[in-house]
Prior knowledge:
- By secondary structure, this protein is α/β, with parallel strands linked by helices.
- It has a single domain, classed as CATH 3.40.525.10.
- Helices cover 37% and strands 10% of the residues.
- The strands form three sheets. It has a five-stranded mixed beta sheet, with helices on one face. A four-stranded antiparallel beta sheet has the order 6-11-8-7. It has a two-stranded antiparallel sheet with strand order 9-10.
- It is globular.
- Pfam families: CRAL_TRIO (PF00650), CRAL_TRIO_N (PF03765).
- InterPro entries: CRAL-TRIO_dom, CRAL-TRIO_dom_sf, CRAL/TRIO_N_dom, CRAL/TRIO_N_dom_sf, PI/PC_transfer.
Amino acid sequence: MGDDVPKDQQGPPPAEAAKAETRLKGHLGHLTHEEETAFEQFKKLCIKEGLYTPATDEARASHDDGTLIRYLRARKFVPQDAFDQYKDTELWRKENHLDALYEKIDIHDYQEARSVYPQWTGRRDKRGIPVYLYEVGKLDSKKMVAYTSSISKSKVKGPSPTRMLRLFALYENLTRFVMPLCSAVPGRPNPETPVDQSNNIVDISKVGLKQFWNLRSHMQDASTLATAHYPETLDRIFIIGAPSFFPTVWGWIKKWFDPITTSKIFILSHHQVLPTLTSFIDIENIPKKYGGHLDFEHGHLPVLDPQVRECLTILPGPDAETYFLSAPVRWIEAGEDGEMTALSVGSVDGKERKEPIATLHSLAVRVATHSSNFQSQRTQTVVPSSRPTTPHSQAVSSKQAPKDSRPESLNQAAPSSRPASIQPAPGVNLSTTSVHDQSVPASGPLKHPLANGGQPEKIAMPPPPVQIERTKTEYVTPAEDPAEIKQLA
């Protein structure tokens, strides 16, 4: 590992980038007056086309504010541009039956996809954003040939390529499981703002020129899907271990990605790795091989940090923790006390799983709901968004939080102060396949007056359009033998 950093991408991000207030620009709870106005205009466009239903006294909104605001940030708060992308995504999801697909995806297929893309370490950075690790060197030709062969045998079919449908499930896990969990856990800065991005460490040490080229379409897929349909879910990428030839090939490598993605990539030389990572991430949450204290490598199960683990009860039983951390999971409401249930989905040997597997304790969800209502009052909207505690309740919860109670084995029972079993609330239908048919943490109608004393306004919805024009998302694989790679070889 040397100091082979391209001149146009040299060095770590500026020091202020690690500050929470820098990330918060354009996020819920920190919108300018102009941005709030654009947000309301964007919602009105979505309502008019039947692509968004606001919350009422009887029902929650069809989409949370945290999801909607990402499209506005991606399009520089131009409502029409954000709406065009949002509409394309909603139609793409419908065409590919993506909500149902996440419920039914074969867990073996899901875990295979997880093995060849960035993996959550189970830890968060100093701002509460989940930290992912990607060791590209482990994706040798043998592994990738086996993965490609597995894709060709997959029974999952749709308008989009099968490889993209598998990759989609990983993004769904990020937005349905990891982000809501990181949002709800107390003890992070600015809890009024939901976590809606990820931080990535990408290790390219021991990667040869031929391996880079063979992985080009594989890496392009992730960038294409995120840019088109999961906008603004990436905070930044730290590339470490750049080989000696990297400055030479960076010019054509960055053509594989869109400009928004490349602007978030920072290539670190050897001596910049630990100082840069520790400016964003506490040292106990940095993997050991990069100078930190965390015993984690790509391919391991996430190692939940104590603050996350102490808010959870994972159902005792064989492989429960493994399924919780490595299989498709989503959150649903579990009772009147506000606790959330993690529902294990996907299928095993053709049989669908819809099994409660963990509980997020009511303390974490209560402070999430309180902070969500605070934000709804601040922006005078009737659609609360997922977010945890306010600074005051954060201080209270920190006094009440117990020590780390992570079981030493998968079969160890939960502490007696926590429920030993998990049951959904009466009326919760675990067979529902659509993410929009189940609640997410802290979502739902307001139970109290707005800041101006009025009640949430009921909005009469127009009927959905019969047909909506869309722009098809194209997935392009580069030519197999371009002249420029011959020149570089």
